[in-house]
Fold this protein.
Amino acid sequence: MDFNKIFKYSWDLFVRDIVPLLVGGLIASILTVVSLGILAGPLYGGLTKMVIKRVRDKKAPEIGDIFSAMDQFIILFITTLVLVLLIGLGLFLCIVPGVLLATIWMYVLVYIVDKRVSMGEAMSRSKALVSQVGFGMHLVMVIVCGVILGILGMTYIGGFVAGTFIIVIICVMYFLSNNEEYLLVDKPSAGVFEVKVQNNIRSEVEFSIHQSDKHKNVDMSPVVASPPVQTQADREASERKSVVLLCLNCGKKATQGSFCVECGAPLKVVCPNCSKELVSTARFCPACGSKLV
């Protein structure tokens, strides 16, 4: 376990329900003194149950929950009496035995309240859990909690505040040791989750509509190639007219060769527009001015 996590989760739980926890702790401390310790077990069992209710059921505890463990009055009374006697005796004799017993039996009351087991089974489970997770770490936490209680316990108000906070710490360590840290992590409420889901769905729908509109606006008509740009040279070439070869004997027109294919007479070059005989190197007709190739 991480010490930072222990104190972070403990402080968050303590502050979140500080009013019912402090009022409940005050009631427990007053009635414990008034009853000469008889009600200590059931009342502090109820305080433990308030923390478990917040963590496991996600329900805010109420001040009246301090009496919620009265149905386990006998087992909580006997267990608290046995723990106080044995741990107190160990502290009186040599301090160290009492600290060791307080360490291995740290979760006894929590097991009784949460799992509703017998005192013997709760002691056995607590010892096994402490050994499994790490005795040294639990020993350090017992010493730290003892120091906190010793300093704040010098005043009555500080004593019940420290006692309440230590119960919260023990409950947090209980959940962490049992691999139930996920219960300590805050989760968004259903309303917030639903709003987020609705926003996500709305965004997806808007995106789909936008994509659909984009596809609708696409021009699917066949692409028609634009005519090539006509250059000055192309325009001049189109304006030119090819020369025509004309037979001097029979008047037969030809496109190539030097002699007529009909009568064999020599061919002459004439203007295709006005049939004026031309010089072979002429570019314009001297009679009509037509541009020649």
Q: What stands out?
A: The CA atoms of residues 122 and 252 lie 129 Å apart.
